């Protein structure tokens, strides 16, 4: 990150936290230069960027001042927006039927050459897919066809070793013998759920939750019960305890790190509390950690697996969000359910193609995966900051948003009168896509929410599209 961008981000954060109030003058160019130990030219660049973001404005002969709109609190620091409505005192288990909505929405997004704010996929241009394809082509050339028979479960031994090594390097020692390679994290989640629950069972999920979790529940004929989820702290463990006390829960499914769509990272104390609660009731928990490598902080966060002493955590992840989406290489660490998951893998899809496994293993062994990840994290962190500032600038009063700590999606609460499905249709007519909030729940609690993807390059076109989106929201509000 360039010095002026860093300085602009620091001032933006200070405004967000209320250090600089609406209409208040920020330090002069000379003062900022002295305070931060940077050149006057750097400060001028930073202040120009802040003006462009709509955070500050210049007043002749007076200096730079915080804009009124920029000073509105836009972070979801209070629990209510991310929770079920206050009047809903008792969560109710419900049949799941979101697949048709999600499928039609994703088809529309894919079928239109539109600004991909609604895309669930990261920008592929950031991934080293050409390099991985080179490995795959080299493997196909050097090995005879009989050597390329797909690996039976648990999967390619070298890939399993490389995955275990990465966990060990990040302070999560795992047994390589526990790892099962899957067709992306989606298959890992489906196999894990199938291993711990049966049709008709009730599964506890976050609210809102990632729709792939709901798909798994729907596919297997189970019921979902949504548990209040704080936009910063994660699933409400006390609320979950009350649900467990009142009805039979077969399993729990959560995304503790950079949850989609809220973007939070559960604090370690909450993760431990969650694991301890479920362990006390012998309830397995499926942990979707697909965004594990996309953190904005200095170190990779802990997982529920770190606190698991009973083998009840079924940890699922993949390379689809951090390395390559086209090869769909995922894995599961199913704890005490390993044998069941391995058997189900064999019965469901038999194998995972061998060449992609070997190609990814070769890349992990020989290329700069960590260097690649540092670049991706930097880009996502910068673009998250830009999109948050632009939403704050272009959207009407009453708009609030999450504060992502990793990943590449932003959760936006619109004024209550705005219907996100109507907004989705109106935006699509203008070649702009959004993720309507109704995809992330079995209920109607998030009809005035949308999810935005900030992984794609920020250009004049994307800025104009977000401005148009803000105008649509303003009219609907």
TrEMBL record:
GO terms for molecular function: DNA binding; DNA-binding transcription factor activity; pyridoxal phosphate binding; transaminase activity. Keywords: Aminotransferase, DNA-binding, Pyridoxal phosphate, Transcription, Transcription regulation, Transferase. SMART domains: HTH_GNTR (SM00345). In the C-terminal section; belongs to the class-I pyridoxal-phosphate-dependent aminotransferase family. This is 2-aminoadipate aminotransferase. It comes from the Bacteria. Residues 1-69 form the HTH gntR-type domain.
């Amino acid at each position: 990150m360039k010095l002026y961008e860093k300085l602009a981000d620091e001032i933006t954060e200070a405004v967000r936290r209320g250090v600089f109030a609406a209409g208040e003058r920020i330090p002069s160019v000379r003062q900022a230069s002295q305070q931060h130990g940077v050149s006057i030219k750097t400060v001028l660049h930073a202040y120009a960027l802040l003006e462009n973001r709509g955070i500050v404005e210049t007043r002749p002969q007076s200096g730079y001042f915080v804009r009124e709109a920029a000073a509105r609190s836009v972070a979801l620091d209070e629990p209510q927006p991310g929770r079920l409505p206050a009047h809903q005192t008792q969560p109710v288990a419900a049949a799941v039927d979101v697949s048709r909505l999600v499928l039609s929405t994703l088809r529309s997004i894919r079928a239109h050459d539109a600004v991909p704010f609604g895309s669930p996929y990261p920008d592929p241009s950031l991934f080293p897919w050409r390099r991985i394809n080179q490995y795959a082509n080299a493997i196909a050339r050097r090995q005879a066809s009989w050597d390329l028979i797909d690996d039976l479960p648990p999967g390619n031994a070298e890939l399993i070793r490389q995955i275990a090594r990465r966990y060990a390097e990040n302070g999560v020692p795992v047994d390589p013998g526990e790892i099962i390679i899957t067709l992306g994290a989606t298959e890992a989640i489906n196999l894990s759920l199938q291993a711990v629950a049966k049709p008709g069972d009730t599964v506890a999920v976050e609210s809102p939750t990632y729709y792939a979790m709901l798909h798994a529940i729907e596919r297997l004929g189970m019921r979902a019960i949504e548990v209040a989820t704080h936009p910063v702290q994660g699933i409400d463990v006390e609320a979950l305890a009350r649900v467990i006390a009142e009805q039979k829960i077969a399993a729990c499914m959560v995304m503790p790190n950079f949850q989609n769509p809220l973007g939070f990272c559960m604090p370690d104390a909450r993760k431990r509390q969650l694991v301890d609660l479920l362990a006390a009731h012998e309830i397995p928990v499926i942990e979707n950690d697909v965004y594990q490598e996309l953190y904005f902080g200095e170190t990779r966060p802990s997982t529920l697996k770190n606190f698991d002493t009973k083998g009840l955590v079924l940890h699922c992840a993949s390379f689809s969000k951090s390395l390559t989406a086209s090869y769909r290489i995922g894995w599961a660490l199913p704890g005490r359910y390993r044998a069941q998951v391995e058997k189900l893998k064999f019965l469901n899809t038999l194998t995972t193609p061998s060449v992609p496994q070997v190609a990814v293993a070769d890349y992990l062994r020989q290329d700069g995966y960590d260097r690649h990840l540092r670049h991706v994290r930097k880009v996502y962190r910068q673009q998250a900051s830009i999109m948050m500032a632009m939403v704050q600038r272009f959207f009407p009063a009453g708009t609030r948003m999450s504060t992502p700590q990793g990943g590449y999606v932003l959760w936006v609460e619109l004024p209550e009168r705005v219907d996100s499905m109507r907004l989705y249709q109106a935006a699509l007519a203008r070649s702009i896509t959004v993720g309507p909030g109704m995809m992330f729940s079995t209920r109607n609690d998030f009809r005035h929410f949308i999810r935005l993807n900030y992984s794609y390059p920020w250009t004049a076109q994307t800025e104009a599209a977000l401005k148009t989106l803000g105008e649509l929201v303003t009219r609907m509000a």
